[in-house]
Each structure stands twice: as C-alpha cells, then as structure tokens.
Design goal:
Helix content is 53%, strand content 19%. It is α+β, with helices and mostly antiparallel strands. The protein folds into 6 domains: 172 residues, Multidrug efflux transporter AcrB transmembrane fold, CATH 1.20.1640; 86 residues, Multidrug efflux transporter AcrB pore domain (Alpha-Beta Plaits, 2-Layer Sandwich); 100 residues, Multidrug efflux transporter AcrB pore domain like (Alpha-Beta Plaits, 2-Layer Sandwich), CATH 3.30.70.1320; 164 residues, Multidrug efflux transporter AcrB TolC docking domain, DN and DC subdomains; 230 residues, Multidrug efflux transporter AcrB transmembrane fold; 105 residues, Alpha-Beta Plaits, CATH 3.30.70.1430. Strands 1, 2, 3, 4, 20, 21, 28, 29 and 30 form a 9-stranded antiparallel sheet that branches. Strands 5, 6, 13, 14, 15, 16, 17, 18 and 19 form a 9-stranded antiparallel sheet that branches. Strands 12-7-24-23 form a 4-stranded mixed sheet. The protein starts with a helix and ends in a 9-residue tail after the last helix. The relative contact order is 0.11.
C-alpha cells in the first residue's frame, strides 16, 4: 500500500476526526468539567444510600389478650390469609400481650405498591377476628436510621421536659432545613387516669362501668346541626369535653334520691400524667428527652448537620429555660466528613504518585495529559451520576477510588502507544496520534466493556443489598463510559501536538535523566524479561502447572479458613449502643439497678482509657444517654471522633472496655455493646423452628450449650420468652347461681387492673387516653385481689374469692413464628469476625449431625450475616456465571476464536488468587468489598491481556510463528502492561498505608485490588504466553490427528535474535483496528 493511500485509510473514522480537531476535543473536555461540576453539586450527601426495604407489617391490637390467644386468633389467621401472596419472599409473625404482628417481605423486584394493595385488600376481608380487637393496621417498611441525635436534659419534672422537647421538635421540623422528620424519643405518652377506690365504690354501691359511663356521656363535644333563620344560620353545639383533672372530678356519676350528688371526685382521684408504663431516661445522670432526626427524602448531611448544630446553640442561648440544656448526642456527619476526607486525600496522593510514575517512564507531556484525562473522565462521570440516582456517600466515593486504576489503564495504553510511534520515528504529530490510537481501539473498547460486565451483577442482586452495591456499579459504568470517550477522542487530540523530544536548553539535563530512566524499562524488557519469558515458553507445561498450583493454594487458603472470609464487614460507628434485656417479669427496680450499673461502667471505662492513653487530653468515652423501661435498657454512648483518637484505637476496642467495665449481669437474657453501623446481624445466629414450644426450648438449650464451648463466643442468648408467672382464673362451682360467668369475672378484673378506656382527648397533636382503673397501690399488690368485688346482675357486690379461684402458672410473654411455624433465634457475639467461618465449619461437621438425630423435627437455618451471606453468595454465583458467559461471547466474537477468550479471562481467577495472597500477607479477612477490588483488578488485567493477544494476533497474521509472535509482542507491550499494573498499585497504595480507623472498612478492597494487580502482572507476562503456546501446540496436534497434516512442534522456527523492524509490520500492524 502506498504511503498516500495508507494515510487516507488512517485519516478516516471518528478517531481521526477528533484527533485532527483539537478545538472540538478541548470543548468536549471543557463541557465535561462544567457539567461534572454541575452534576457534583446536584448529588445528595449521605453516609450510606437510603434503601427501600420491600415489605409490609400488619399489626392488630387486642388489649389484654394473652400471647397464646393472640397467636391463635390473630397471627395464625393473618398467616393463613396472606400465605399465598404473589411476590411473598418471607413471612414472620410475633404474638405479644395485647398485640400481634406479621411481617411480610416481598421480592425486591416485585412491584411494592401492588404488593401493599394486595395485603390491604386481603386484610380488609378478614371477618373472623376477635370482636374486642382493633382494626388491622398495614404499614409499608421504611428505613428509620437517624443521622443526628439531641439530648434535652436538666433537673426538672418529666412533664416539663416532654413539653419542652415537643416544642423544640416542632421548631426543628418547621424551620430547620434537614430536620423535617424530627421525632421525640424517651418520653411517655400523656394519659388521664381516673383511679377509683374499691372502698368508695362499695360505699356508694357503684361499679367501674358506672363511673366509665358517666364520664363517657358527660365529657363530650358534639354538633347538633344548625338552625337557618331569616337573619342567618345558627350552629347547634354541645361543648363539654373535659380536659383537666378538675373538670373530670366535677362530672356527676349519680344523683341519689336524697338529693345528694356523687361526682367522680367523690369516688376517684383524677391524675393527669403519663401512661401506666415504666420508663426512665437519663443523659449524664439527669432526666432527659431525646430528639432524633431522620433523613428527609433529599439528603445533604453535611449542610443539614451544620444547620442543626447552629439550632442547638441558639436553643441553649435563647429558647430553653435556665434549668434545661440541649446537647449533641451523636452526629453521623462526623463519619461522613472523616471518611470522605480520607478517601479524597488518598485519591489525590494516589493520582500524584501515578503522575510521578508516568513522568519517569514516559514523557512528561504524556504523563500530564494522561493525568488530565483521569480528571476529565471523573468529571464526565460526575455529570452522568445524577441520571443513575447516585448520591455522594461512602460507597460511591469508595467506587471512585476503585475505578482509578481502570481509568488510568485506558489512558496509559493509548498514551503509551502514541508516544511509542513518536519515539520510534514512525509517525509524527497527528499521524502518530491517529495510528497510535487506532492500533489499540479494539483492546481498549473491549477492556472497558468487559470491566462493566464484571461489575454488572452487583446491580442485579435480588435483595435490598442491591440498593447499596448498585451505587458502586453505577459509578464504575459512568466513569468508564467517559473514560472511553476521553481516551479515544480527547487524549489523541492533545497528544497530536507531541513532537520528537529535544534535549537542548536548560531542561536538557533533566530530560536526559528522565529519558535514561524510561529507556531502562525498555532495556529491562529486552535483556532481562525476554530470557525469562523464553524460558517460561520453552517449559510451558511446567509454567502453566506452576501458576495453576498457585491458584489451587489460594483456593485452599480460603476454603480451610487460613484466610478467613467475612462477607459483611463491620462498619464502625462513632458511638457504642448498649442493649441489655432482662427476663420477663423483672421488677422495674431491678432494671433500674442494672441501668445504674451500666452508668457506673461508662465512668469506669472513661477512667480505664484515660490511664491507658495518658497523652490524650479529652475523654475518649463521652456522656451516655440511657433509656430504661420494663425489662430493656438501651444506651447511646458517645466516643471520641476516630481522627482524634490514639492511633489504632477502634470503636470495637472501646466497646470491649465498656463491656468489661460494666461487669457481669447474671440475670440478663441478652447483653450487647454494638460498635458498628450495621450491627444486629453479626456474630453467629441460627433460626430453629418447631410447633411445640417445649421441644423448641430443648433444641435452643442444646445449641446454646454448644456455642458456649468456643472460647471466642460471648453474650450467648436466644429470643424465646422466659417463663413469666401469671394468675389463671377459673369459675368456682355455684358461681352461676349468682348469675356470674367467667366472662363477667374476666371483664371486671380487667377494668380494675388494666382499666377501661373511656375516651381519647386531642391534645398537642396527640390522642390522650382517659382510663378508669384502680389506683397504683392496688394494681401493684396481690393483696388487692382479696378486696376486689364482682358485681352480679342483681347489683350485689361479692368478693372475687367467692366466685372464682386463681392459681399461679408459668406464662409466655411473646411467641415468634417464621414461615408459619413457631421459631426461636439463637445468637452469640464473637471476639473477632475472623473466627465465624471456623465455628460454622466445626458445627456443620460435628454438631449439627448430632443435633438432627436428637431433634429430627426441628428445622434450622442461618440468620444475620450468615443468612445474608448465603443468599448473596448464591445470587452472585449465578449472576457472575452469567456475566462470565457474556464476556466469553463478547470476546469470542471480537477475536473470532473459541480459545483466546479463555486466555483473556484467565485474569479473573488469578486476580482472585492474588487477592487471597494479599489478604494473607496483610492479615485481614476477605470481605464483600474484596470482591469489588478483584473485579476492578480483573478489568485492568483483562485489558493488559487484550493488548498482548491483539498484538500477537497481528503478528501471527503476518506469518510469524507462535513463539516468535509471543516473545516479540510481550517484549513490545511490556512497558504499557507494566505501567498499568504499577500505576494501579501505587494509586491505591496511600489507602493501603492508611492507619486510621475509617480506612479499615476499605482495606479489604484496596488490598485485594493492589495485590491482585501485582500478582496478575506475572500472569499476563508469563502465564498467558505459556498457555497460548500450549494451546497453539494442542491445536497443531489436533489438526495432525484430525486431518493428517504433518505435526511440527511450535518454536522450531523461533529466532531470538530476529528483530522485526517498522517496515516489516507496517502493512498490517499499523492498519486501523477492525
């Protein structure tokens, strides 16, 4: 082909047009930055993405009903009605005293609105619920993770504190941007309690029903319509709704024939206070109410946090009474800022290191424009992110760090090839830019496409996890899409002005030093790497076997738990949340003593850490908020921000110190000190199901006993209700003669002790119940049963003991059901997440077979992390299998070969092997984030393999022998392959070296990516050529066996001294990619 005709061919196509039009390229780059800035400014800010969990809860209240009755008459009937719902994934039920719940989880891809409508329709059709139960309530699941907490505390009464907290909540919701969903926690609802004395009832021959009916008929507001007169309409109104204690006490209960009037105040004391529940909330030892801020629909956590902090300062200065203060309880924006700062600084340092490497081994102008290309690709990616609904969060920033290596890879392959054309003097200027780019169009495009396919399974997961992992996929796709545009259209236009290097002038000495460093890489490839490669190809079967053995070793390290796996790594919080649960029936005084023990433990932990780290001036453990109710204690314990802590001090360690300082709580059913944002599913958790509670209890005890045998487990517990004592009533013989039945006895006992709801008052946006019942001293004493009188139909009052007998019996306070069978959860926390795999493997091998022989009817399953991991792994196996198949089809079509795609895809298993070796070296478990690192590394290495195999194919089509083509291509492409691996590694090196607490969450990803790329470098340069040679030899052997063509071993024509010059390859290698 003539030079003129050849030039005409090269100057056609989209690459040539953009390379020749630098104005268009610069305008496109400018647009990328402008729209990137605009897109960046539109992105929401949040710690983690808001997730919609597809599901609904159905609840039905049946006041006073026992858990067994709730299970039989509410929960099981709901289950029967909803069991065959379309889209139903899982159903769980709970029966407690007075209320039943059924939680329905739908498949993530199912239309949630349609699902909710079908649930409501079926629930509305239920006609066999108890008459005394309230209408069913259907609620769609919503994420309720608060991002900021405020403690309102001071030495004042609880009612004043509640009113102040309500007022502040209303001001925050109405005037502070970001506080629209503020909620008050830690306070009781208001209630008017009409506390009737049994003695006064007998004195006036009254019943509870008499008092209740009097209040119900006298305390009313009602409309009587209107009278339309000639002068206008007059409304008819009755307004006598009582609202204060005095107003209720003046209500007339009965008018005696003597003219005496009996009022409510004569037989009862009216208390305008709180509902009859036990609750104590403190912060720093003072009475407290909390305001929790939930994230609004549009989230900008940094700005919203500043708004709320300013409001707290204003409240303390202007709004609050002198005795009350508002203090920040926790702020997730601190985690956002700290983590973003670390990722941003690591990315910046990594980019600078990449620039330094490129300056050393390429020309400074190439290094400069490649670096600008990286920034352009990210700017273009930010312009696209709003279209995907991505926010600025830890995961999306994590993805930005992840994809740097792949973006650098594209730019280096193109830039290095253009530089090589200029360096060898084959072409100059625009011609070099066009031809250098066209030569690598095919590998770069297919490298980007295969990387996108590698990440695509994460946006197709079936569970709610997809809403988190998809953010990473979207960032990768957006950044790679514009990276392809930048490397194919913009970068060539910038490098089209590159001229042969000159070494005169003031900078000549520096340029000569730089050139000698760059040339040393080529010298290394030709004089040191080439002999090693020739040796690897000569002993190709040994080379392949060696690498396969390394892969087998990596698999063995993971399977045998030498390198542990923890798919769901704990994401450390800036606070510790303590949860303590005591047995059913525990006196509130005992619960308060445990609460005080926890409070003392907080102070002791503060002292322990102060002694351990004397160089730290401020308290590492902050003030604790403690919420104490009947049998549960929950505490938010603040901790020093990670960036201010002593090096290496984690929230996990702070939680452990708090646990030790608090000391043992022998009667506690559950004690947890959660240090992670995703706490609750950690440790080991098992689900056991069986219809018989006694059998279920025995099975639970056996599992707990096994868990206690491991040194690494603690806080072992279950969610089966402890046996709380209860009194069971039965009718005495002869009671019917008095006209009394068991229903009457039950109703009157309920009126006395639980109370009868008379009405509800609207007050400050709440419904305040009005209850008629015994006073507290009677409701808290068993002796009062002796004084209780049962009213007969003829008006007589007889002692309860005359018509009924009652005995103590063990009762159940709650019943859990899973997929329509009674179930229980057994759980244990672990001293380290690394040991979970060992415990699970040991139980699978030794314990569960024995368990199944003893309890053949008990169904079991995993809960928490283990359940989520199993579901995710099963989904990923299927989805990744499909992704690999798609990659194979894509590459097979592109290379017109069945075998070569296998060569290219060898990057995937060996990236995995390299990652496992890296985790072994750094002593960290393989986690979900590690898989992202492996996927990114595989994308880099597939790109390297594409560049190598594409070059080999071009030489083979010119008539070169297999070995000759392999050696020359590997030596020829040694520099770009090495540079892509080295720049990817140094790009994540700052994060690998980062020792801060926030960086530990990302360590698995960067270690996996860095070590995978480093290991896969040898795969691309040694294993792939050796495997190619094996494949070529087997193909010749097959042709000999099939067609009788003479068999000739490969490599016989190989000449190590043969060097193919530019003219030898110009007719084919320098043609545009097909």
């Amino acid at each position: 082909m003539s030079g003129h005709g050849q030039q005409d061919t090269h100057h056609k196509g989209i690459v040539a047009w953009w390379a020749k039009n630098s104005v268009a390229a610069n305008l496109l780059m400018l647009c990328a930055f402008i729209f990137g800035i605009l897109g960046f400014s539109r992105l929401e800010q949040e710690v983690f993405p808001q997730a919609d969990f597809n599901g609904a809860s159905v609840s039905i209240s049946w006041p006073g009903a026992s858990p067994q009755d709730v299970e039989d008459q509410i929960v099981t009937r709901l289950e029967e009605t909803l069991a065959d719902l379309d889209g139903l994934r899982r159903m769980e039920g709970t029966a407690r005293e007075g209320v039943g719940y059924v939680n329905l989880e739908s498949f993530q891809d199912y239309d949630i609105d349609k699902f909710i409508e079908e649930v409501k329709l079926r629930v509305d059709q239920l006609n066999n619920l108890p008459q005394a139960s309230f209408p069913p309530q259907v609620q769609r699941w919503k994420q309720s993770e608060m991002y900021l907490g405020i403690a309102i505390h001071g030495e004042t009464d609880r009612m004043t504190l509640k009113r102040v907290a309500d007022e502040l909540r209303d001001q925050i919701a109405g005037s502070v941007e970001g506080g629209e969903l503020a909620e008050v926690w830690g306070t009781l609802g208001e209630e008017v309690s009409i506390e009737v004395s049994e003695e006064d009832l007998r004195r006036y021959n009254l019943t509870f029903s008499d008092v209740a009916q009097a209040v119900r008929t006298s305390s009313i507001n009602s409309s009587g319509g209107q009278i339309r007169t000639d002068v206008g309409s007059i409304r008819l109104q009755t307004r006598n709704l009582s609202d204060t204690a005095d107003q209720f006490e003046r209500i007339i209960v009965r008018q005696l024939p003597s003219g005496e009037t009996i009022r409510v105040g004569d037989v009862a004391e009216v208390v305008d206070g709180f509902v009859d529940e036990s609750l104590d909330t403190t912060y720093g030892g003072e009475p407290t109410a909390f305001i929790m801020i939930m994230p609004p629909e549009t989230m900008h956590i940094d700005d919203y946090s500043k708004n709320l902090l300013a409001f707290i300062d204003k409240a303390n200065e202007e709004l609050l009474p002198e005795a009350i203060r508002a203090d920040l309880l926790f702020d997730q924006a601190d985690m956002y800022r700290g983590t973003m700062s670390i990722i941003s600084s690591s990315a910046l340092i990594g980019t600078i290191l990449v620039l330094i490497v490129l300056v050393l081994f390429l020309r400074p102008v190439v290094a400069f424009w490649v670096t600008i290309g990286i920034l352009t690709a990210f700017a273009g990616g930010f312009a696209l992110l709003p279209l995907f609904g991505v926010s600025l969060n830890i995961l999306s920033f994590f993805a930005i760090l992840l994809v740097i290596g792949v973006i650098v890879d594209d730019a280096i392959v193109v830039g290095e090839n253009i530089h090589k054309e200029v360096e060898l003097g084959r072409y100059k200027g625009v011609d070099a830019a066009i031809i250098g780019t066209q030569l690598v169009v095919k590998p770069v495009i297919f490298g980007v496409l295969t990387t996108m396919i590698m990440f695509s399974p994460w946006m197709l997961l079936p569970g709610p996890e997809r809403q988190f992992t998809a953010q990473i996929t979207y960032v990768v796709i957006a950044a790679l899409s514009f990276s392809l545009i930048e490397s194919m259209l913009i970068l060539p236009a910038h490098l089209a002005h590159m001229k042969p290097q000159k070494f005169d002038g003031a900078s000549g000495v520096i340029l000569k030093v730089q050139r000698s460093i760059a040339d040393s890489l080529i010298w290394f490839a030709e004089n040191l790497f080439k002999p090693v490669l020739e040796l690897a190809i000569r002993f190709r079967y040994a080379t392949v076997a060696f690498f396969l053995c390394l892969f087998a070793i990596a698999v063995g390290l993971l399977v045998n738990n030498i390198v542990p796996a923890a798919m769901m790594p704990k994401i450390e919080n800036n606070l510790v949340i303590a949860r303590i649960e005591l047995p059913d029936g525990t006196p509130f005084e005992r619960t308060k003593r445990v609460s005080e023990q926890l409070s003392r433990g907080v102070f002791k932990a503060r002292e322990v850490l102060a002694e351990r780290y004397p160089e730290v001036d401020e308290d590492i453990v902050k003030d604790a908020s403690i919420i104490t109710n009947e049998r549960n204690i929950q505490s938010f314990i603040g901790a020093m921000l990670p960036e201010n802590r002593p090096e290496g001090l984690t929230t996990r360690e702070i939680a452990q110190v708090l646990r030790e300082a608090t000391g043992p709580i022998p009667d506690a059913e559950e004690v947890r000190f959660d240090f992670a944002m995703n706490a609750g599913g950690g440790g080991v958790r098992f689900a056991l199901s069986h219809p018989n509670l006694d059998t279920l209890q025995e099975a639970v005890d056996m599992v707990k006993e096994q868990l206690s045998t491991y040194d690494t487990t603690f806080d072992i517990g279950d969610n089966l209700s402890s046996a709380a004592p209860e009194l069971r009533f039965s009718l005495k013989p002869g009671a019917e003669a008095l006209g009394v039945n068991l229903q009457m006895v039950s109703n009157q006992v309920r009126q006395a002790y639980y109370g009868e709801e008379v009405q509800r008052l609207p007050r400050d946006g709440e419904d305040v119940r009005v209850m008629v019942r015994y006073p507290p001293e009677a409701r808290q004493s068993l002796d009062s049963l002796d004084d209780l009188r049962i009213r007969t139909p003829d008006g007589r009052a007889v002692p309860l003991s005359q018509v009924a007998e009652y005995d103590f019996a063990p009762g159940i306070n709650r019943i859990y059901r899973r997929d329509r069978v009674r179930s229980a959860a057994v759980f244990a926390e672990l001293s380290s997440p690394d040991v979970r795999g060992q415990i699970m493997a040991d139980m699978n091998e030794k314990f569960w077979p024995q368990f199944e022989r003893r309890f053949p009817g008990v169904e079991r399953g995993n809960l928490g992390d283990a359940e989520a991991e199993m579901e995710m792994v099963n989904s990923l196996i299927m989805l990744n299998g499909g992704a690999l198949f798609m990659m194979y089809i894509l590459l097979a079509i592109a290379f017109k070969s069945y075998f070569q795609p296998i060569l290219l895809m060898m990057a995937v298993p060996f990236a995995f092997a390299g990652a496992v070796f890296g985790h072994l070296l750094f002593g960290i478990p393989v986690a979900m984030f590690s898989i992202f690192g492996i996927a990114a590394a595989a994308g880099v290495v597939i790109n390297d393999n594409l560049v190598l195999i594409d070059n080999v194919n071009r030489r083979r089509q010119l008539g070169f022998g297999a070995v000759q083509a392999l050696v020359e291509s590997a030596v020829n492409r040694f520099r770009p392959i090495l540079l892509t691996s080295v720049t990817t590694f140094v790009g994540v090196l700052p994060m690998i070296a980062e020792k801060s607490v926030q960086a530990q969450m990302l360590k698995p990803m960067v270690v996996a990516m860095g070590s995978a790329v480093a290991f896969a470098l040898f795969v691309s340069l040694l294993f792939v050529p050796a495997l190619y040679a094996v494949g070529a030899e087997l193909a010749r052997l097959f042709r000999w066996l099939w067609s009788g063509r003479p068999y000739q071993p490969i490599g016989e024509s190989y000449d190590s001294d043969q060097v193919s010059g530019p003219s030898d390859l110009d007719d084919h290698i320098h043609q545009p990619a097909e």
